[in-house]
Amino acid sequence: MSNINWNQKENEMLSLIEEIVNIESGTFLKSGVDRVGTTLANLYKNIGFQVESDIQEERGNNLVITHPEANQPEILIIAHMDTVFPEGTVAERPFTRDEKNAYGPGVFDMKASQITTLYAIKHLIETGSHSYKNVKVILNSDEEVGSVHSRPLIEKHASLSKYALIVEPSDEDGTLVTGRRGGGKYYLTVSGIAAHSGAEPEKGRSAIGELAHKIIKLHALTNAEAGIHVNVGVIGGGTSSNTIAPHAFANIDVRMETPEQADELDRSIRDICSRVDIEGTSLELRGGITRPPMIKNELTEELLNIIREEAKYLGEELSDKKVGSGSDGNITSSVGIATIDALGPRGGHAHSKDEYLVIESLVPRVKLLANVIDRLSSHK
After folding, report:
1. CA–CA dist 359, 210 (Å, integer)
2. Percentage of the chain surpassing pLDDT 90?
3. I want to staple 223 with a disulfide (CB 3.0 to 4.6 A). Which of 77, 228, 260, 317 is the partner?
4. In angstroms, rounded to a whole number, what is the distance separating the alpha carbons of residues 209 and 232?
5. How many alpha carbons lie under 13 Å from residue 248 in its C-beta half-sphere?
C-alpha cells in the first residue's frame, strides 16, 4: 500500500468530479441524470463491474452495480445522482476549485461521494482484497425529492443486505449520521368556481379561500416540542385579482421523530383534506410519508463502533449525531438493517450557491470506506 500515489489519485478524482458536476442533473431533468448515470456506469464497467438499469419514465434511471462474482453481497452502498439545482445552473457557475475547496452545483451533495465510492472499490481491487465482491451499489435518481420512485428498489435490496453505508456528504468535522427525522411530501389541489368579483361574486367559490382554511389547520399540526413540523412551503392559484379563484394548490412538507408520529400525522392530514370549509369547492390530496424516521439502535451502534475503530486506525476520531434532514438511510434503517450515513467527503452549504467540497477529505474518505468494506467482509 505504501507505493500508492495518493496525490495522483486525488487529482484523478477531482477531474472526474469536475466532469459530473458539469453535467446538469436536477431531479426533474431526466436526460441530465441519465448522462451522469451513463458516465458512472462506464467507470464501473471499466473496473469489471456489471450495471443493471432500473428504467424510469419520469425520472432518471436507477442503477444497481455489482461484481459478476458477487455472491449474496451483504454491504449495500447508496449514492444519489440528482441535485436540487434548476436547469441552467451549471452554465452560470460550473465547477471551480482553489487550493482548499472545490465548488459547483452538487459538488458536495453528492457528486464527490460518487467518485470516492468508486475509488474505494478500485482501492480494494488494486490492493488485492476480494471484499469488493461483497458490495452492491445503488445509484438512485430522485433522492432530493424523497426517493419516491427509487424507494421500492432500495427496500428490495436493503432487505437482502446486512449493512447499509450511505455516502451522503459529511460536515466540516467529518461527523457521521446515525439518526434522522422522518419526512413526507403532500400536494394539495383545490378546485373552485370562477366568477367576476365585482359583478357577481355570489356565483363564485374561491379555491384560494378554501386553501387558506387548510393552511391554518395544517400548520396547527406542528408540535415543536415533540419534533413535529408541518410546513406549507409553496402555494399558488387564481387567474386575476378581479376573479374568484377557480383553482389553487399547496406543496406541504412534514417532519417527525418517530414512526408513531408519522402514522398519526398522515391520518390527520388526510382527515383535514377530506372535507371542505367552503361549500362548492373540492379537494385532491396526493403524496404521503416518503421517509420513515431513521432510529439509532443496537445494530447501528455495532456498525458505528466498527467504523470508528477503522477511522482511528487511519488517525481520525469520529463522532456521530442525529440530524433533521432525511436521506436514503431512512429507508434502509426502516427495513431493519444496520445503517450509517454521511460517509462521504467533508464540505458544506449544500443546496446553495456557496456549496463547497473540502478537497483534502477525498483521500481519507476513500481509505475509510475501503477499510470498512474490508472489515465487514472479513468473515466471508
Report:
1. 51
2. 97
3. 228
4. 15
5. 27
